[in-house]
Amino acid sequence: MQIIRKREITEDDFVHVPDGAPLPEGGKPIVTLARYTAERDALLARYSALGVRVPPDKLPSDIPDLARLALVALEFPKFTEGRPYSIARQLRDRHGFEGELRAVGWVLRDQLRYMERCGFDAFELKPGKPLESALEAFGELQLTYQAAADDPRPIYRRR
Amino acid sequence: MYQYDDHDRRIIIERAQQFRGQVARRLSGEITEEEFKPLRLQNGLYMQLHAYMLRVAIPYGLLSSTQVRRLADIARKYDRGYAHLTTRQNIQYNWPKLGDVPSILDDLADVEMHAVQTSGNCVRNITSDPFAGIAPDELEDPRPYCEIMRQWSTFHPEFANLPRKFKIAVTGTPGEDRAAVRFHDIGIRIVENAAKERGFEVLVGGGMGRTPHIGAVIREFLPKRHLLSYMESILRVYNLHGRRDNKFKARIKILVVALGVEEFRRRVEEDWEATKTPELELPDAEVARVTKFFAPPAYEKLPASADQLTALSLGRDRELGNWIKNNVVGHKVPGYSAVVISVKMPGVPPGDVSDTQLDAIAGVADRYSFGHVVVTHTQNLVLPDVKTSDLAKLHAELVELDLGKANVGKLTDVITCPGLDYCDLANARSIPLSLEIAERFDRIDYLNDVGDVSIKISGCINACGHHHVGNIGILGIDKRGEEFYQLMLGGSPGNDASIGKILGAALPQDAIVDAVEKVLDRYLVVRESADERFLDTVRRVGFEPFRQAVYGDALFGAAAEKGAE
Ligand code: SF4
After folding, report:
1. Are residues B383 and B419 in the same domain?
2. Is B356 in the pocket of ligand 1 (CB under 6 A)?
3. Who among A94, A114, A155 is closest to B274 (CB)?
4. Same domain assignment for residues B235 and B381
């Protein structure tokens, strides 16, 4: 499957592993937060690059051993879901998470720029939505007013 | 007023371009109507009963005459020759075509205007006191802080998908709240502490809608430099914890009540301690830069206004005298006055202004008021800086333009939402009621006798007509498919904030204005003196006399029976 990572279309090197499905031999799995919480030590020992998929009603403090994760995928059950934007900022700004922060679920082109400014750097678009033209979103609204994960300085320190 | 710099200008131009693309993708089917909806909403584009409605932002209500002329042009070119002033100091067009909207946005961007975040679940246009900068009782002009927050909230990436809409109001007059800050998601009052430092008192969780609440103070004194970091923490707590499962329970007021003010405050303070970076602090230089744009215009040195005003209001021209008494407001600069232009007159839905009136208003603003106009949340317009010696001449011109009604703050200065004539959420029509009220009470002696009283009408419990804070509130409800109205008394949006209560059984459309008249006639009988305002009388004597007046003689009548709960 193709995703957008750091503003480029690329083949996904992670695989989503639903609850109950067998874990892959090697590679880079993304497991649910529930599974991760239950089998954390074994999972961290077994995979050098592990991802965790987090529903929007969980906070960064619900994700143990954050620093050892290669990827956090925040779920957007609906395109109007707003919590992951704040969760992403907390992960980046307060918890210093440096791994991949991926938006998954009902992810649309017109949200990408806002997501990126909050600290997301990878995007799985909703199936069926064109990736190529979605890249144009990163060129929109280049000028900003606020401090965010992309720049700690509000406009009044940049004017 | 604030002038865009290159940065501001390019942001608005880029936004207009982006929306053009979004509309094209909608028209091509690349995005569904469902997916398009939040995009168009954040550009002020609603789908109403018959057509799209475009709401244009007027930050803190302030317009230049150039902008007013552009609004007139747009009404002519893309609408049916009129625009509508809203209860949040904005202006809306009721008949634009989707395909025209990108061009309207271009036309607006040209005069430093936009429709950004005038609807949708985001931070909306920030409102303020219509007499900001000129009120004699003002501690400090709130508009620089409104503008700083306008910029901060514009396309804020973290808060564009909140559980629900979010409204902020600021007042710089602690003694007299003309911005209804206690009925906003966040209300801000500029205050002075014991050490004579200026700062902000922050209120959270006020609002109208189905469950009206008066905002609670969550911080008594916030040093000015922390304004934005503190706003961010409030918004973040709301974004993370506000309810998203039920849109009627999604406003911040519900969260504040559910958590309790103490717990809400604890969460905000906890986030704030962790996230208030030095970068976020508001530098004095930035406050000074923005404040410069609101510097007073070149006032002349003139004698005080008091004697002239008395002479005018007692003069032979009674029409002028009434207008001076009702529509002219004190100004902090000697020799100047503020004028409220009433657009409320018989036959015109409250808030509607025609393109020719807008052009004419731009003209009088240029000639009499340094080219500035302010939209009020009571759906009128203010000329903020008129020489008191010009008032008679200005009045004559306004009368010519059919804008000379002397009814500001009086019975016929009704506030209404669009209601069933335009809005697909409505239970009942509200505009016809206001027209009936305007017509029935169009007698200046009666208006003056009844004195200051506000009537506010909403077509459903969403309360866009602010009926909860009307001295007299009217709410449209649906009873087995028929339009009925609840009558409420005792609301007030100001420092003495209160929420109106229902007087009795709902009334059918043909009885509601009669009921208003009965209430007012009873007030004239039971008030202590002509100086006791309607609201004070209601607070003193309670509901019983009014209940008797309205329902007493009709208790066995068909009207009351039909409307009984
Ligand atoms: S109060 Fe109800 S009827 Fe009136 S505009 Fe708002 S939603 Fe529509």
Report:
1. no
2. no
3. A94
4. no
Domain A2-157 fold: Rossmann fold (3.40.50)
Whether B161 and A93 lie within 8 Å, measured CB to CB: no
**Distances, alpha carbon B141 to alpha carbons A18, A60, B137, B191, B525, in Å:** 57, 40, 11, 12, 41
- Mean pLDDT within A131-145: 92
Determine the distance separating the centroid of ligand 1 and the alpha carbon of B427, expressed in angstroms: 8
- What's the CATH code of the domain at B272? 3.30.413.10
Question: Where is the domain boundary, B110, B143, B158?
Answer: B110
Q: Is B5 on the interface with A (CB under 8 A)?
A: yes
| pLDDT for residue B252 | 97
Q: Is residue B121 part of a domain?
A: no
Q: Chain A contacts of B161, Cβ < 8 Å?
A: 80-82, 85
Q: What is d(CA B179, CA B128) in angstroms, rounded to the nearest whole number? A: 5
pTM: 0.93
Residue ranges of chain B with per-residue pLDDT less than 50: 556-565
Which among A81, A86, A154 is the nearest to B236, CB-wise?
Answer: A86
Instruction: Identify whether residues B25 and B97 lie together within a single domain.
Output: yes
Residues of A in contact with B236 (CB under 8 A): 86, 89
What are the extents of the domains in chain A?
2-157
Within 10 Å of residue B111's Cβ, how many Cβ atoms?
Answer: 17
The verdict on ipTM greater than 0.90 is yes
Angle formed at CA B398 by CA B392 and CA B400, multiple of 5 degrees: 110
Query: Is residue B396 located within the same domain as residue B419?
Result: no
How far apart are alpha carbons B557 and B559 in whole angstroms? 5
Q: Are strands B82-85 and B45-47 parallel, antiparallel or unpaired?
A: unpaired
| Tens digit of each residue's pLDDT (9 = 90 or more) over B498-551 | 999 999 999 999 999 999 999 999 999 999 999 999 999 999 999 999 999 999
Expressed as residue numbers, the domain containing B431 is 415-564
